[in-house]
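A common beginner's mistake is to predict each chain separately and then try to dock the pieces by hand. The better habit, illustrated here, is to supply every component at once so that their relative placement is modeled jointly.
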Amino acid sequence: MDKALEHKFVTNLEKDQNIVHKICRIYTNDQASHNDLFQEITIQLWKAYPKFRGDAKFSTWMYRVALNTAITLYRKKKRGIQTQDYDTVHFRIKAEEYNDETEQQLSLLYNAVKELNDIDKALVFLYLEDKNYREISETLGISEVNARVKMNRVKTKLKKILNP
Amino acid sequence: MDELELLKKDWKKQDANYPKLSYDQIYNMLWKKSSSIVKWIFIISVLELLISTFLSVLFAGDDYWVQLEKYNLKQFTEVLFVIGYAITFFFIFLFYRNYKKISATDDAATLMKNILRTRRTVKYYIAYVLIYNGLTAMLIFSYMIYLHINSQDQTLIKYSFDTLDWIKFIGVGLIVLTLFLGLIWLFYRLLYGILLKKLHRNYKELKKLEL
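With all components supplied together, the output reads:
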């Protein structure tokens, strides 16, 4: 493939790489898996890039391919025992305005999301990314009504995990 | 749900805390190997085709053809081979078409459906290989028995079997054949089962909603 296309793709991805990192964060539990999934998503994005027509925003298109990779295409590699709590090490930088109680609640919430299945994780992710039900339904291939129903079920599931 | 709103608020705050990969780091990733399910299914099905071709070439040496000619089976086997290869090429075409259809830019449900369809094609192919081999083996087996019974050849008549011997002979033959085919079947069940367990679960999750 030609250099110009490569350059355009990498530049775009570099700019929007947070989307991929966020998906990796939800779908993996340690740094090595995070890197693996990031790489696989990059490969899939690159493979699909010639089909990207530019009629959608690059980031919108990315959501779809990246989530598809996490849910459908990616084969997890076997990992050794995970010793470190990835979230506390890398992301949960304590914000000034949070008190301990909020902090604890958030940590429980993140753990609860980790317990969901792949599809539910995708819903939570899209919800956290402020996507509307139309966008959620288009990404997952279900109707808008179903997306709503599903989202409500996920909320119930999360409640159950938090208050067993 | 208040909790989810809290999570959303925090989620946005975390934006600055993600790793930042450089242009070069991302660029280098473009040439790395993919480990996608689709690739694995493809590799396995190509291997499957190669192995079954290899096996038939291996078994069908010169001796094999000479023997067949002796028993007047040559033409029959040739016809079987032609039919067999025609069907195999039809499957290759189906595999190819399925892979062309799989696109990461589809919505998740369509993508999963296409991958599962690919898997179904492979399953049919395996079923075909098993049935084809089983039937061929049984046909040749029965023909041999028929020849033996009707043989006027003195050297063969020496080994005359009584009924019990025949039952034993056929029984053992059938058990070996069943074991052999069963083993192949189990092997594929395990292979694709492991490969597609997660995908199947996810797809069922989405299908549930459509009911």
